[in-house]
Structure formats: structure tokens, C-alpha cells
Amino acid sequence: MRKAVLPTLLVSTVAAAALITSSQAFAYGAGDVFTRVGVAKVAPKSDNGSLANGALAVDVQDETEFAFTLGYRFLDNVGVELLAALPFEHDIHLNGGNIASTKHLPPTLTLQYYPLGGTQSRVQPYVGAGVNYTHFSDEELTTGDLDLDDSWGAAGQVGVDLLIDDHWALNAAAWYIDIDTDASINGAAAGTVEIDPVVVMGGLSYRF
């Protein structure tokens, strides 16, 4: 009887230890360093203002590009993440004509809250809030010189990781970013362009 119980106990103990180890590995928490990579679509709001005392209606077009993030969890439920990307190039319609364009880099830093952080859940949702800095470059205008000032603004974020194994996860995320830039045409102040995009990104997450 004793001989039958000992192997059973041994198997049960090993199985329990394996389960605990696996659960701990999947439990995202304090000390995690991670990156998320994927494709992001920047979709500006539909009404982007007007220039030249209302003479030019501005419509900034959508753009899709490769993007990535870097993040760190300093508590089980709290972390930070920086959104980065290759430059996004947007066509700008003025009074319906595609006569302008610009490139921009929108690094965005958010403080994040993970409600299920530190648990065994394979589904890890999160929300974040923070600040965005947008740098504009290579502005073009067929009828003159266009200049867009860099901008600072608030940002909000929602996302979710769907864990695959100890390191990899599927990721989906969205940001709302407040981007307002003062525009000049031929050196003269022309008004403010309100881009205020929603950024939607899908890809993979990797935990180091």
C-alpha cells in the first residue's frame, strides 16, 4: 500500500510544481521589460480646421506604418510604455484638393494600469494616460511654403495582451492623441490644424 502511495504522491507533487511554475511564468508583474511591434493606423478626426482666415478647409488623410513600443512594469499593476514609429506621411487636402503633405513622428509616453497584473490570467487588459510630443518635417505645399510647428498634447490608451507562452503574446492597442499644430504659409501665420487622431495598432508583444 505504502509503495503505491509514494509514486502517486511523487507524481502529484511534480505536477503541482510544474503547474505553479507555469502559472508564475505567465503572471505578468513587477520587473517585466517588454516590447510590442506591429502595424499602426493613424486616423485623424474628420474636421481638421481651416487656414487663411477660413479660406482653406483642412482634411488630413489616414496613414498606416510600422510601429513599436518599449515598456517596463515597476509594480504588478502599474507600468510605463513609450510608443514610437517610423515617420508617418500624411496627405493634406485643402478645399478638397490634394495639394499638401507632411511627415511626423509622434512619440507618446503613457502611465499604464493593468487590472489583472500579477495574476495567472492569459488575458491582460490595460489602460493608460500620458503625454505626446509630435515632430513635423518635410512639409510640402504645391502653391507655396508650408510649415507646421511641433506640438505637445495629452494621450489616452487602451489595450490587451493575449498570452501565448512565457515571452510572446498577441497585442491590440488604441490611443487617442491630442495633436494641434500652428501652421504658417509663406512665412505668415495661417491658423491651427487640429489632427487629434485615433491610433490603432495590432501585432505581437515580447516579454524579456
Automatic annotation (TrEMBL):
Keywords: Signal. Transmembrane segments: none annotated. Residues 1-27 form the signal peptide. InterPro entries: OMP/PagP_B-barrel (IPR011250), OMPW (IPR005618). It comes from Vreelandella janggokensis. This is Outer membrane beta-barrel protein. The keyword Lipid biosynthesis does not apply.
